[in-house]
């Protein structure tokens, strides 16, 4: 849509990517002179071997995820595996004695840490992962854990009720997130003019919406349902637009893969073991999610059903969603540059 492709749009994604790349490069250069924090260097002869058991990666593994909670675990098979120690036990077989989990408020912040070397790998939404790769980030995608990340558009009370009502209105978004891609694609598809986007993290956006300082906001899953229960109008959701649904990606730095070439295989085997364990304990798993986000197990079962967790690294439908998102970002000149998805995905 012509009205959408303007300076406002460019100042939204493009500026974020430029700042992200510049900051990350400075951090990366600074990090180059630092040590591995006491981690053991990989044995070149061992890691070159095709036998994973001989690999000797650094003893400390740094993992990032989106969302903060008192337990410091993500959800999904990854979070369950860390919570139960299943993944740690598997990694110990390869000399990894400590896994440090680091929570981030959004994908761009996590991508910056991965690029700078503060993280070895992490799980995040597909849009920030794609945007980081488009800036030249040396990462590889190793797992697409979920392919049903739904963005919701929530209006303020007494405010816009329909998509047409968004004309000339202000929407709070998280720049660079899968929800940003959702609202950007939605505004273009529906040809809604003069929509103003303001970057706010979820808690800030919710507060601004309650005060009437913004007309609408994007939100996700359980947090959006809470707002709807509180009387905020649901204007739209990505389930009505299958091409705008997001996915979850786990990416690893190419630098770490040099130290542990078989990491992709080891990680996915450990993750699958964790998934099988939680599938056998559904009630305990939903209780775990409840501890993470403070919502009831019943509501978690509704918005995060176990059946949506993928038991394979990548599916054809998931890769198709990735390709569609990448194409949109590139076509709208929101991504820095195009790249071959097949060269990014490590199967």
UniProtKB/TrEMBL annotation:
Signal peptide: none
Membrane-spanning intervals of the chain: 12-31
InterPro entries: SsuA/THI5
Domain SsuA/THI5-like, first and last residues per copy: 98-284
UniProt keyword annotations, A-Z: Membrane, Transmembrane, Transmembrane helix
Matches recorded under PANTHER family: ALIPHATIC SULFONATES-BINDING PROTEIN-RELATED
Protein name: Nitrate ABC transporter substrate-binding protein
Organism this protein belongs to: Paenibacillus ferrarius
């Amino acid at each position: 849509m012509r009205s959408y492709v303007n300076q406002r749009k460019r100042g939204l994604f493009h500026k974020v990517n430029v700042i992200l790349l510049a900051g990350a490069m400075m951090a990366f250069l600074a990090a180059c002179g630092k040590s591995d924090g006491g981690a053991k260097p990989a044995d070149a002869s061992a890691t070159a071997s095709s036998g994973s058991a001989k690999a000797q990666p650094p003893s400390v593994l740094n993992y990032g995820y989106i969302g903060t909670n008192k337990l410091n675990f993500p959800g999904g098979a990854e979070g369950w595996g860390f919570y139960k120690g299943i993944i740690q036990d598997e990694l110990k077989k390869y000399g990894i004695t400590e896994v440090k989990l680091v929570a981030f408020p959004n994908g761009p912040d996590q991508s910056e840490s991965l690029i700078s070397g503060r993280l070895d790998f992490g799980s995040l939404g597909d849009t920030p992962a794609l945007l980081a790769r488009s800036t030249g980030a040396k990462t590889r995608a190793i797992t697409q854990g979920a392919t049903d990340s739904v963005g919701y558009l929530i209006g303020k009370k007494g405010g816009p009720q329909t998509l047409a009502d968004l004309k000339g209105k202000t929407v709070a978004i998280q720049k660079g997130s899968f929800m940003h891609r959702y609202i950007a694609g939605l505004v273009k598809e529906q040809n809604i003019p003069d929509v103003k986007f303001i970057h706010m993290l979820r808690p800030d956006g919710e507060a601004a919406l309650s005060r009437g300082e913004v007309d609408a906001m994007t939100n996700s899953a359980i947090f959006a349902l809470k707002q709807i229960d509180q009387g905020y109008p649901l204007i739209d959701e990505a389930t009505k637009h299958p091409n705008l649904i997001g996915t979850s990606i786990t990416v690893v730095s190419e630098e770490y893969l040099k130290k542990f070439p078989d990491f992709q295989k080891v990680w996915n085997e450990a993750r699958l073991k964790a998934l099988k364990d939680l599938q056998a304990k559904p009630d305990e798993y939903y209780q775990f999610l409840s501890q993470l986000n403070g919502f009831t197990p019943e509501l978690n079962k509704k918005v995060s059903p176990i059946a949506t967790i993928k038991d394979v690294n990548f599916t054809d439908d998931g890769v198709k969603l990735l390709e569609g998102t990448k194409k949109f970002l590139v076509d709208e000149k929101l991504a820095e540059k195009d790249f071959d998805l097949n060269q990014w995905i490590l199967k």
